[in-house]
């Protein structure tokens, strides 16, 4: 189960990186920024799940950092295999992929991870002797669901902007 959590953390890191790499015009939206933050917080709660499962903290210098060099790199960073498989047509010409497609894609990938997590949280961990697994896992699931909400708001914002432009 620990491996599943680490994999989810890496997948969420990959989605966060994809969001960070949207063009600057696309990142301006407060809904996209909020979704990005929700993904990071959901990922952080999964780190708390790992700690509750007995994983040692990767941050050995907690409370003893004095310089930038003392800050450890983030754990469970995405590798190339952790990125979602992009649709074939995107590989041909990413420049022709619309912003709507990108947001919808991110929203769906977050939903897939949330669905997998929900099965673990509400089935495997609900009666777990370590009750914090449920608590921390539920927090992560809530933040991932929230990220999908924010991206849904972004899609609505795009639609309303488009309708406004048509009217003018």
Essential attributes:
single chain, 168 residues, mainly alpha, Ferritin, 6 helices
The radius of gyration computed from the alpha-carbon positions, rounded to a whole number of angstroms, is 18 Å
The sequence of SSEs as H and E is HHHHHH
Q: How many DSSP H or I helices?
A: 6
Fraction of residues in helices?
Answer: 55-70%
Amino-to-carboxy terminus distance: 54 Å
Assign the structural class, choosing from mainly alpha, mainly beta, alpha/beta, alpha+beta, or little secondary structure.
mainly alpha
What is the level 1 CATH name? Mainly Alpha
Question: How many β-strand runs?
Answer: 0
Q: What is the average per-residue confidence, as pLDDT, rounded to a whole number?
A: 83
Question: Per CATH, what is the topology?
Answer: Ferritin
